[in-house]
Amino acid sequence: GENVGLHLPTLSVQEGDNSIINCAYSNSASDYFIWYKQESGKGPQFIIDIRSNMDKRQGQRVTVLLNKTVKHLSLQIAATQPGDSAVYFCAEKAGGYQKVTFGIGTKLQVIP
Amino acid sequence: DTAVSQTPKYLVTQMGNDKSIKCEQNLGHDTMYWYKQDSKKFLKIMFSYNNKELIINETVPNRFSPKSPDKAHLNLHINSLELGDSAVYFCASSLDSSLNEKLFFGSGTQLSVL
Fold it and tell me: Quick check: bond before B8 cis, omega within 30?
């Protein structure tokens, strides 16, 4: 499944399928990008990050892709599990003492 | 061992009251933050302190006053609470605001102003 949203969208995927969560970032000067996962009643938790000198980075079951040309970031989750159900946020940061700016989240619902 | 802990978890209060939220981190980080999350889950930074010094102060009403007695603590005091202050407030920390930007969040304080 694939989703791009301007306000908290919901992506529903079948357990075992791959998920793709998209994010458009705003600042062309941003050089560091992070994905966070927020489960219900908890604070956001770091998943994976990528710097602007890379276009792909892989973690355990997750891959982040960065396309600086179109200012687009995506998070791919392989073999989605019920425990992946959460709200996912992309975040961007320019260099130095600049704030981390969060995008609008995407709610991922995993259907067992 | 909770890395970033904030209290209270829930705060219900009347309009016009003054309240404080406390935050402590035991990660040895230099930088701490306050974020506000609205009902649509949008996360917005309010303040950032690096080694007790204010480095980010977003356009936040001056009813909100952060205080950092030491680099492990960042408290948020809110005067004259308004209905629009109802939100979830998250404290976070990072090793260093310029080099290592990975944020560690507390579990949030849900503030309800009646």
Answer: yes
CA-to-CA dists, residue B84 to A65, B16, B63, B80, B111, angstroms: 37, 12, 12, 11, 10
Any idea what DSSP says for residue A6? Answer: S
Residues 6+ apart with CB under 8 A from A57: A48, A49, A50, A63, A64
Residues 64-93 of A with CB under 8 A from B: 87, 89, 93
DSSP string, A56-102: EEE-SSEEEEEETTTTEEEEEESS--GGG-EEEEEEEE-SSSPPPEE
CA A95 centroid distance within chain: 20
Q: How far is B103 from chain A (nearest CA, A)?
A: 7
Task: Report pLDDT digits (tens) over B1-32.
Answer: 679 999 999 999 999 999 999 999 999 999 99
**Which residue, among A105, A83, A22, has the nearest Cα to B35 in the 3D structure?**
A105
Q: Which of A70-84, B52-66, B94-108 has the highest mean pLDDT?
A: A70-84
Å between B97 CA and nearest CA of chain A: 6
Using the Cβ of B102 and the Cβ atoms of chain A, whether some distance falls under 8 Å is answered with yes
Compute φ and ψ for A82, nearest 5 degrees. -55, -35
Mean pLDDT of A30-56: 95
Using one digit for the tens of pLDDT, what is the confidence trace for A51-85? 999 999 999 999 999 999 999 999 999 999 999 99
Q: Does A32 touch chain B (CB under 8 A)?
A: yes
* Residue length of chain B: 114
